[in-house]
Amino acid sequence: xxxxxxxxxxxxxxxxxxxxxxxxxxxxxxxxxxxxxxxxxxxxxxxxxxxxxxxxxxxxxxxxxxxxxxxxxxxxxxxxxxxxxxxxxxxxxxxxxxxxxxxxxxxxxxxxxxxxxxxxxxxxxxxxxxxxxxxxxxxxxxxxxxxxxxxxxxxxxxxxxxxxxxxxxxxxxxxxxxxxxxxxxxxxxxxxxxxxxxxxxxxxxxxxxxxx
Length: 212
Prior knowledge:
The protein is an alpha/beta fold.
């Protein structure tokens, strides 16, 4: 059986995964690995949202990118995960405020737009698992999970905490972050780290679902 081994770990809780509805925002270096993990774990209902297309620079870190250069990401990924629902849309702050998150059991944030991330925290923090900065790092063992206010070692996360405080937001939600300081100022990424972020995001989503 396809899911026999994950089912042997979860027992009766496996049915919770099969019935769960998960919304994954962003399917790049973090989100793509998260999607693969969710799918292989037996999550029954996955919706992915992204607007980007694959290009050559994605191939060091993004699932299936070498096979689909120039193609729209969500459409390309649906070829590999035909059970997923896709939304080809740019996730900005207005999109978040307009979108209805009610039907989903978990909302997974693997996007880079800081204003959209802030809106997600304000609108659906109870369901949210958010990825902070995964780029510019080399050590996957430094990846951690905690609530947003306990995250550290990440300038991107510091900026989000600052902006949330400005908006009067004081709720807690789970984030994935690295305590390793950035190695470079320019763009740079390592699949061992971005992939770890995605796998940890999947694991946290599974824990969230089965704990209900």
